[in-house]
Structure formats: structure tokens, C-alpha cells
Automatic annotation (TrEMBL):
Encoding gene (name): neuC
Superkingdom to which the source organism belongs: Bacteria
Top EC group: hydrolase
MF term (GO), any: hydrolase activity, acting on glycosyl bonds
Name of protein: UDP-N-acetylglucosamine 2-epimerase
InterPro entries registered for this protein in UniProt: UDP-GlcNAc_Epase, UDP_GlcNAc_Epimerase_2_dom, WecB-like
Record keywords: Glycosidase, Hydrolase
Residue span(s) of domain UDP-N-acetylglucosamine 2-epimerase: 22-364
Organism: Flavobacterium piscisymbiosum
Enzyme Commission code: 3.2.1.183
One Pfam match: Epimerase_2
Amino acid sequence: MKIGVLTSSRADYGIYLPLLHKMKNDSFFEIEIVAFGTHLSRLHGYTVTDIEKDKYNCIHQISSLISNDDEQSIASSYGLTVLKFADFWKMHQYDLVLCLGDRFEMSAAVQAGIPFEVKFAHLHGGETTLGAIDNIYRHQITLASFLHFTATETFSDKVRCLTNSDNNIFTVGSLSLSDIMSFTPVEKQAFYEKFIIPNEEFALVTFHPETISSNDNIQYAQEMKNALATISEKIFVVITMPNADTQGSIYREEIQKLKTEKPEKILLIENFGKINYFSAMHYSKILIGNTSSGILEAASFGKYVINVGDRQKGRAQSNNIIDCKFEESGIVLAFDKALNLEKYDGDNIYFRDHAANNIINIIKEFL
């Protein structure tokens, strides 16, 4: 069976990995990776090199991002991605194409496939993020897809509502957690030395723009910077850099200013990669930001998460999440509260056993 895998960012590729590793070792599947989006961006770490290290037989590369991140540039990148994939789908046919999540580039690639009747299998559909325009892109992908692999039954219900159908919808849990029970972090000393982290507790931080509230992002980025400046006086701060969302550069600029002002307290990482990111989560004291990994994955590492603002609003949460407004005082107050808590020992609502194996078995049954 010939399977295409659409991957537009470091984030979705990391989620795919448990499934891709198993598919590579299963003679039933012939895998072709289609890398685009920020994978081909030097600003975002040119992460297509990480894909190449995994030695797939075929990796297509489609470059379509405009370097600016204002609204017009994002819309232009969307249109250019559609045009590039119109040519791609004309030249390449697959039994099934995997797509994941809610990025605008992913939506554009999928929309281009509709006239070609491409069979898409969508992972992580049915979720809600009211503070991000990605919410719309995610639902667009759902409507264009043939198979649906969701993280919770609530999300499966949402997909049923969107598609007006009960067909081909499967609740498998979060794919990124598929092998979490057997995950072994990088040895601590080696990890700390590789990334030049002081031998002390640290907070793991990731912030992205609120693309629904684009007019507020300048203020939000400043509130983030001020809060992290205060927090860095109490704990070392490791920041993973924003992705290619609308106005992501605003956050990058404030983060760079913070690093300049507090060089001994702040570490900036463009791209950890999945194993190193999970290791960072494992060794961290606490997570701060507005990224989906805090919602989906942190509970499985026993970590509390300061979830800031509305970007993830509407997404189901485990009991390790502490929500706060996008303002300096609220972020610092939530941090102080979480710092005094013991390790989180509750459930992760996104975890189900053998997600990757279940997806493989369902694909084989259907196709």
C-alpha cells in the first residue's frame, strides 16, 4: 500500500514518529514523506534535515512559505501552497495520505487534493482552539478527509457533527503518546551538557501568537516578556521558539530582547526534536505557555502547565492545567502557585494504549 505523509512542521513530524517507525518496518506499506512548510525554512531550523536522518526511501520537498508573517503574507503562502500541491497531486497518486492537525499549510495542501479525490486520513481532528485561527483550518481538513483518528471520544463526536456522518471515525488517543510508557529520556548529564543547561531546575516555555486576537499580540508579547523576566529570577528558563504563525515574529523579537537582557537566565532553542523535547519535559520543573504539547502530553510526564490566554481555549484538559490570562501578573501568580505543587500524578485524558498499532490495523482493514 502506497502511503503519503504530509508534514509541514517539527511539531506534526514529532507526533507522527511512533506511527512512521512502525510503518517503515511493515512490508505492507510503501511510505513517501511530503515535507513542506517550516521544514524548509532556515529561520525555523530547516528541520527537513531531521527527516532525512530517519532515512526514508522517498522524501518530497515542496517550498511555498513567504518569509513574512503578516496576514497578507500568510494568505499568500496559503495560495502558493495550494498551487504547488495542485501540481504535486496531478503527478503523484497514493492509496491513502496522512495529514495531521491544524496548520494553515496543512489545510492548503489538503484543499488542493479535493479535486483529485485524494483519500486523506486526518489525525487530531475535532479539537477546539478558540484563540487560534487554526481552529478553522482543522475543521476544513476534517471535511476533506476520508478517515478520522481522534484523541478523545468528545473529539470524535465533534467530527461526527462536522461531517454529518458516523463513518470512518476512530478514537485512538494522542499519537504522540503511543510509546510513552516505554520512553527513556536522554541521560540527564548528557542532555544538560548538549544544550548548555545549568545543573538546576528549569521551566520549559513555548509561546505562540493568538491568531484570533491578532491586534493584541504586541501587548501579549510584552506581557510574556515581562512575566518571564520575573520568573527567570526564580528559576532558569528554557524557551522553544514560536512557529510560523501570523505575527510569530513579534514574539520572537521580545524573546530575543529577553535573552539579551538576561543572558545567564534564558536559553533559546529553535528545535529540540521529539526525543530531546520529551527529555526536556521530563527534566523540567514546570511548563509555561500556550502550546498544544502542554495540553496533550505534559500530564504523562507528571508536569503542571501554566496555560496562558485563549489559544488553547476549548481544548479538553487534564487536571494538571492551570489557566491564566495573558497578562504579567496572572502568569507570575500562576507560576508561583504551581511551583509549590508536588509532581502531578493524575490521568492524561489523551492517552490510550497502542495508538500507532491501532491506526495501522484500521488502515489495513479499510484499504
